[in-house]
Amino acid sequence: MRVKCVVSYDGSRFHGFQVQDKERTVQGEIQKALKKINEEEVIIHASGRTDAKVHAVHQVFHFDTKKDLPPQQWKRAINHFMPNDIYILDASYTDDEFHSRYSAIKKEYRYLLSTKEYNPFDTNYVFQYGRQLDIELMREASQIFIGEHNFASFCSYDQYGNTIRTLYTFDIVEEDGIITFRLIGNGFRRYMVRHLVGGIIQVGAKRISKEILSEMLESCGTKKCLFKAKPQGLYLQEVYYEED
Fold it and tell me: What start and end residues bound the annotated signal peptide (predicted)?
């Protein structure tokens, strides 16, 4: 039987989502719990990986099991073994054709930035930028990324393969000195959100122009974006599927 779970986690003390030897990861903690419940090794498959210090509000993963428990019992059982920085929000049975990654049609990320004075209590959850930015310039520049593009210039240097993605939404909202960047697309390559936000921040700081960002995008990887926003402000907000 295949179980689909929705999980929330604080990424501050994790070395990313994916299992790594000798490092604390979200996948590692969940699989340890499932091994205790199933009494055998269980591999989970997530909608995607998040990097060290990146958070998730609604991450999705699935796993296959021989154990027959009521859906809500799965939620309670896994949470019983979870550390206090991971929480299973929902668990349900799904058909064998469902895949957390390949069945996803859209993903939403949010990035939080503070233009206010440094706050040590928020340092793991909001990028402490501490200076004013030109919101209107950033909003104008963000629209060059809407639609289908080759985002090779805004991905990790060590990642190859298909870098063509469609970005549906890139909203920027400011409230009480906190700027929220909201991106929705059909998929994101590694570091793509952080490079997009990083480039837009440079425009808002008037260090580069919208035209320079546009040139990077049109170069399809020849001109790389060297601005990468810090991980602490990044959240995987939602993963969308056909049935949602």
Answer: none
